[in-house]
Design brief:
two-stranded antiparallel ribbon, MetI-like fold, globular, 9 strands, alpha+beta
Length: 384
């Protein structure tokens, strides 16, 4: 320790840059980027919960037929507009396992509605791992085993039945396979087109940029809903559900790419003047390599957040088209097709459970928005 004439002290010990850093600070400095993103994302509770919910939802899609007690179009002609049923465990104070009470229905010709009476004296246990309607496990394995089934002489309509006696709960599970997948296919098409045209316009500029920008402006100036209707109406009515599903997915992707292309273009216009890009070009790197190895990685955080925020728009687009009868059609099952069956407001007033398919749409869209917000905040390098 050296004393100066003004009374101040100078420490003669060598300077240690890590002296004032805590163990956690040093750990953060040595951690890879993905670990820092994960730490920030864990603090975003809504985003974390939404991400876990969506992960579980997509993992359940291949086994939806196993979880559903009925097949998608299985009808019970004697149980039209059956109200939701509860699964009970106790009967008169005794534990007898999961069971339902049988119901009998009759038409009320005075109020023009179906009425059901529950026989609470006869508990009927559910059948577990039972044989039921045929479906394809994982999309290609034929199976008829279900997690649970209604006992003989009773029903198990957890969310009620619709106008044809089909189980709403089972149809929601089957509908998720199409409604959730359409967003992934649509966003893939959108990202391929958006990144391709946006990167070309931003990197090369000039006439290429001008032509692509004019095409983007033309597409964005067209009214969205009438354009959807026109393209969907052009799909031949004799096409099968699978073909219509892929066409609808591609249409949604094609109409969504201009916004992403414009964002990619603006980012590339600023990044292409950076020194590392110029260095790569001087070393002989071709434009494709520069875009793929140097420009896109610096824009990846925005792309990931943009994808999670765009998927809900795809889901809502398919729902809107199917609701209007111009998207997926029966016998295909999606949430939009189910809502198309529930357009009669008088029926919804009498049988409100027929509008339940809109709840998973709301929940999934909110979950994607929360996840997108969490990823956007976590991937932002300027946020601690």
């Amino acid at each position: 320790m050296t004393t100066l004439p003004n009374g101040h002290y100078i420490d003669d010990a060598p300077y240690d840059p890590d002296e004032n850093l805590s163990a956690l600070d040093r750990k953060d400095m040595d951690a890879p980027a993905w670990q820092l993103v994960w730490r920030r994302f864990r603090r975003h509770k809504l985003g974390l919960i939404a991400g876990l919910f969506l992960l579980v939802s997509y993992l359940l899609l291949p086994v939806a037929g196993f979880i559903a007690p009925y097949t998608a179009n299985e009808r019970s002609a004697e149980y039209l507009y059956h109200p939701p049923q509860a699964i009970h465990l106790f009967h008169e104070g005794a534990l007898i396992g999961p069971f339902v009470y049988p119901t009998t229905g009759q038409a009320d010709l005075v109020n023009f509605r179906w009425q059901y009476e529950t026989d609470t004296d006869r508990p009927m246990r559910l059948q577990m791992f039972c044989e039921g309607g045929a479906y394809k496990l994982l999309g290609f394995i034929p199976s008829d085993t279900h997690l649970f089934c209604a006992p003989e002489g009773a029903t198990v309509f957890l969310l009620g039945s619709d106008r044809l006696g089909r189980d709403v709960f089972s149809r929601i599970l089957y509908g998720a396979q199409l409604s959730l997948t359409v967003g992934l296919i649509g966003i893939t098409v959108s990202f391929v087109l958006g990144i391709f045209f946006g990167s070309i316009a931003g990197y090369f500029g000039g006439k290429t940029d001008w032509i692509i920008n004019r095409a983007i402006e033309i597409l964005r100036s067209l009214p969205e809903l009438p354009l959807w209707l026109a393209l969907s109406a052009a799909v031949p009515s004799n096409w099968g559900p699978v073909a219509v599903f892929f066409i609808i997915s591609i249409i949604l992707g094609i109409l969504d790419w201009p916004g992403l292309a414009r964002a990619v273009r603006s980012k590339f216009l600023s990044l292409r003047e950076e020194e590392y890009v110029r260095a790569a070009e001087m070393m002989g790197a071709k434009p494709g390599r520069v875009i793929r190895r140097h420009l896109l990685p610096n824009f990846m955080s925005h792309l990931i957040a943009s994808a999670t925020l765009s998927i809900p728009a795809m889901i809502l687009g398919e729902t809107a088209l199917s609701f209007l009868g111009l998207g997926l059609r029966a016998p295909a099952v999606s949430w939009g097709v189910m809502l198309n069956d529930a357009q009669n407001l008088a029926s919804i007033e009498i049988y409100p459970w027929t509008a339940i398919p809109m709840l998973p749409i709301i929940i999934v869209v909110l979950a994607f928005n929360f996840l997108g917000d969490g990823l956007r905040d976590s991937l932002d390098p300027y946020k601690s």
